[in-house]
Design a protein that fits this description.
This protein has 4 helices and 3 strands; from the N terminus they run H-H-E-H-H-E-E. By secondary structure, it is α+β, with helices and mostly antiparallel strands. It has one domain. It is globular, with a radius of gyration of 12 Å. The two termini are 23 Å apart.
Length: 89
């Protein structure tokens, strides 16, 4: 069921085509995008942007990057230069 809900926002290649308006759908999409990052690996902001650019097609990687942090899937250093995928819970 969860996969079908997610599929509404992806194209046939698994690329995000729309940013959902509902909170629960945003969470589903962000959880999916978080899987594109390795745990505990340090990423620069540019690396995060480049990965997100591959996995969405509406040119707003900044909102996706911020959402990954806001929803707790990634941690960002104080300056915003380094990002790391973390485990929830």
């Amino acid at each position: 069921m969860m996969q079908n809900n997610l599929a509404r926002f992806l194209d046939e290649n698994g690329v995000l085509v729309v940013w959902p308006s509902k909170h629960k759908d945003k969470l589903l999409v962000i959880e999916y995008l978080a899987t594109k990052f390795e745990y505990n690996k340090i990423y620069s902001e540019a690396e995060v942007n480049n990965i997100l650019k591959v996995w969405h097609n509406f040119s707003d990687w900044a909102i996706l990057r911020r959402s990954l942090v806001d929803y707790g899937y990634m941690k960002r250093d104080f300056g915003g230069y380094e990002y790391k995928r973390v485990s929830l819970g």
